[in-house]
Design a protein that fits this description.
The structure is a single chain. By secondary structure, the protein is mostly helical. It starts with a helix and ends with a helix. The mean pLDDT is 82. 65% of the residues lie in helices and 0% in strands. It contains 3 helices and no strands.
Length: 77
């Protein structure tokens, strides 16, 4: 059985480059994802922010079936 050193060096270099590029791509995507997402989306609002929670029972009692269906498709719930 003949082992070619040149062939093994090529394979090792390819594997090393593949691992290096995969690591760079993974960390790049992770950094980009951290940059895009907000710091804490569930923090308490500050300043002139208002809570946008209303009485859902009052809304459902006064709405028709078509309005509820439209809101269902609009919000995707």
């Amino acid at each position: 059985m003949v082992l070619s050193a040149r062939k093994w060096f090529r394979r090792a270099a390819f594997t090393l480059i593949l691992v290096l590029c995969t690591t760079i791509m993974y960390n790049g995507c992770r950094i980009l994802g951290d940059w895009i997402t907000p710091e804490n989306p569930y923090r308490v609002p500050q300043g002139a922010a208002l809570k946008v929670f209303g009485n859902e029972q009052a809304i459902e009692a006064n709405s028709t079936f078509s309005e509820r269906l439209r809101l269902f498709y609009w919000y995707g719930e």
